[in-house]
Amino acid sequence: MRIAIIDESAARASIIREGLATLDDCELFVVTERRGLLARIGEIEPDIVLMDLGNPSRDVLEEYFAVSRALQRPIAMFVDESDDESIAASVEAGVSSYVVDGLAPGRIRPILDLAVRRFNAFSRLQQDLAEAKGKLAERETIDKAKRILMDSRGLPEPKAYAEMRKAAMNQGKRIADIAEAIVTAHNLMGGG
């Protein structure tokens, strides 16, 4: 596992390193410079990112949230103090674990595990949602194509669907692809 530790303080980063010392097969990368952070993380390609921000200003916190949004990785963020607005912003930014005043070597491993599990669960939910939206869009296209066939050829709904299904089987395509072609052709012919 590749772990990026982002901390401008080498002393605080060493606490995280100490907490991860028991992990086998683990590569640790400490990044202490904020400038070019996203590019540096891109070079490292970590499996998880641990950010220790201490007591950041509002601007610094927002900068790290922007990095979090772009990463698409499990992220655990450590801060000394927080407020409701910062916690809400961290959730919006995709931070998997937002830990207030909890930087201690013994807590690092459980927090890391939690961040990975939360990230994976959230990713599955996002995939399920994208899949459901895709299926809904396909269903809407199929319904639109059926209406086009029903109106243009005077077919009843079951027959229109059967025609699309037959074309899909004959062409080795999905019904949704055939429906998309019907809708596109209809729109090109000025029917849309």
Automatic annotation (TrEMBL):
Keywords: Phosphoprotein. The modification 4-aspartylphosphate is found at D52. Residues 122-183 form the ANTAR domain. GO terms for molecular function: RNA binding. PROSITE patterns: ANTAR (PS50921), RESPONSE_REGULATORY (PS50110). GO terms for biological process: phosphorelay signal transduction system. Residues 2-116 form the Response regulatory domain. This is Chemotaxis protein CheY.
